[in-house]
Amino acid sequence: MSASLLRRGLELLEAPGRRKAPPGLQQGRDGPRAAGAARRRKAAPEPRRNKATVKGRVVKSAIEEYHKKKAVNHLRANLQYMLKGRFVANKTITEQVLAQNRGRKSKDQPPKKAAKKKPEGTVFTEEDFRKFEREYFGRP
Length: 140
Known about the structure:
- It holds the Pfam family AROS.
- It comes from Spheniscus mendiculus.
- Its main location: nucleus.
- Keywords: Nucleus.
- Belongs to the AROS family.
- It is a single chain.
- With 140 residues, the chain is an all-alpha fold.
- Helices cover 45% and strands 0% of the residues.
- The chain is built from 6 helices and no strands.
- The N and C termini lie far apart (136 Å).
């Protein structure tokens, strides 16, 4: 067993009136490290002054801080500003700006407009159909 385990066991078994171990077992504490340990015990942290409570400092309310940093909705003011001006950009300029901002990917391209098909007219007139009926069916 190590000396520290033996010492702890003896401390548990000693009489309640006695607090210190016999002088023979305490010899391990003396030595070069004893001075450092004593210095550490001596310089134990004492309760220090709270630096947050400086004289003259005002304690801020958490609710006031929350309201100060809360996001503000500017929608109404922005809408009034946008509706106030009646300047409308030229359609060609608008198209140019949109074309510049458009990417090269196919998903960024606008749908292609299909060319309007002209209604296909027939080559034959109504008279041609009547003439064909007379010749083919024999009707007058």
